[in-house]
């Protein structure tokens, strides 16, 4: 049930992730409500609007465009869940209208368009964009970050990530393996180390026949202080969904993302369930991310991953895709960080 003072959020893009966020905002998030749904596909928008209206016990209007939604003046903030290629235009318009946005990753697909978004935010003179890097809100990732920052196990020396998806959709390309999937590890490594990534090297070796691309791939990254980290990205791993991070310190090793919970013994096997997909695996992290964003917007500020984080990861993706093509290690090129993001 919606109450006065709730943050009214427009969910823009009502595909699977958009519908997932709309339900979260309507049913789980405190002090927030879905104020509108927006999609060029009005049937889809109306269907999600109807689901949300039932949860909130009040009608939720559907619009075909951001312009129409802004003109109706019915929301305070936007959760942007359209494909990345449509983000630049939407973000610039929303920044110019002074509307805070939680933008699902990527900020934009390339560094050049990400810079244009940074410029728009600088013209506005305040941070309005948070990027949906939800791994930063995962409880174990946060514990691991505290261990890194506390220095209790000495210096962080190296990191290993595993990122395994059950099966890539048909339309998934090799570039997307970097831009859509490894982008999370680029952000995670920057989050854990507080450093920028300076080079990316993608290697391919033996491939599964169960897919249309070279898969799995190995991504080696180096940060500004020289720390090395690797990612095994496997799009057609056929085992469920597995995302893990392991940190190697001077005095110990810490791993995040291992299954816990009910252990079953049956048919001469002992087993522990793992998640089937990222919606389930990261549901608590998405809840936490959206709640903290709502709290921050209501309090008049933002503290989550910024447009700069979106830009810096887009630059890493650029280097990663170049490395997929060249087979060489590629440098990450960044502009100077504007004061707004320091
Ligand atoms: C997907 O788009 C996500 O964002 C998931 O978190 C990621 O693990 C998956 O590889 C992507 O395709």
Describe the structure.
- This protein starts with 6 loop residues before the first strand and ends in an 11-residue tail after the last strand.
- The protein is 38% helix and 24% strand.
- The protein is α/β, with parallel strands linked by helices and 342 residues long.
- Helix 1 runs parallel beside helix 2.
- The chain folds into two domains: 7-133 and 285-305, Rossmann fold (3-Layer(aba) Sandwich), CATH 3.40.50; 135-278 and 314-331, Dihydrodipicolinate Reductase, domain 2 (2-Layer Sandwich), CATH 3.30.360.
- The mean pLDDT is 97.
Q: What is the number of helical segments per DSSP (H or I, 4+ residues)?
A: 10
Helix content: 25-40%
Q: Roughly what is the average pLDDT, rounded to an integer?
A: 97
As for the number of domains, it is: 2
Sheet-strand content, in percent, reads 15-25%
The molecules bound to the chains, other than polymers, are: (2R,3S,4s,5R,6S)-2,3,4,5,6-pentahydroxycyclohexanone
Give the class from helix and strand content and strand pairing. alpha/beta
Major sheet summary line: 7 strands, mixed
Main-sheet strand order equals 12-11-7-10-9-8-15
Distance between the termini: 39 Å
In N-to-C order, the SSE pattern is EHEHEHEHEHEHEHEEEEEEEHHHE
Annotation, overall tally of beta strands: 15
The CATH architecture name of the largest domain reads: 2-Layer Sandwich
């Amino acid at each position: 049930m919606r109450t006065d003072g709730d943050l009214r959020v427009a969910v823009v893009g009502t595909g699977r992730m958009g519908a997932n966020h709309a339900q979260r905002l309507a049913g789980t998030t405190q002090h927030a409500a879905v104020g509108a749904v927006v999609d060029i596909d009005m049937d889809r928008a109306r269907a999600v609007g109807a689901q949300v209206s039932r949860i909130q016990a009040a009608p939720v209007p559907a619009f075909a465009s951001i312009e129409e939604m802004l003109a109706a003046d019915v929301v305070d903030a936007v959760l942007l869940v359209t494909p990345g290629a449509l983000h630049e235009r939407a973000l610039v318009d929303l920044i110019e209208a002074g509307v805070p946005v939680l933008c699902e990753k990527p900020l934009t697909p390339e560094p050049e368009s990400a810079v244009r978004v940074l410029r728009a935010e600088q013209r506005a003179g305040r941070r309005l964009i948070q990027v949906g890097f939800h791994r930063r809100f995962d409880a174990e990732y946060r514990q691991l970050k505290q261990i890194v920052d506390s220095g209790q196990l000495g210096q962080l020396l190296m990191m290993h990530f595993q990122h395994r998806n059950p099966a890539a959709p048909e339309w998934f390309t090799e570039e997307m393996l970097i831009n859509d999937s490894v982008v999370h590890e680029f952000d995670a490594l920057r989050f854990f180390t507080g450093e920028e990534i300076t080079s990316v090297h993608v290697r391919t070796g033996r491939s599964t026949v169960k897919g249309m691309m070279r898969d799995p791939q190995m991504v080696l990254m180096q940060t500004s202080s020289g720390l090395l980290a690797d990612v095994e990205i496997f799009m057609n791993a056929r085992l469920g969904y597995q995302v893990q991070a392991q940190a190697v310190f001077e005095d110990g090793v810490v791993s995040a993302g291992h299954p816990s919970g009910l252990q079953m013994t049956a048919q001469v096997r002992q087993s522990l369930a793992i998640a089937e997909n990222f919606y389930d695996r990261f549901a608590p992290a998405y809840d936490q991310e959206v709640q903290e964003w709502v709290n921050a917007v209501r309090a008049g500020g933002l503290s989550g991953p910024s447009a700069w984080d979106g830009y810096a990861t887009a630059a890493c993706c650029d280097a990663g895709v170049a490395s997929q093509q060249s087979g060489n290690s590629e440098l990450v090129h960044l502009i100077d960080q504007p004061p707004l993001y320091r």
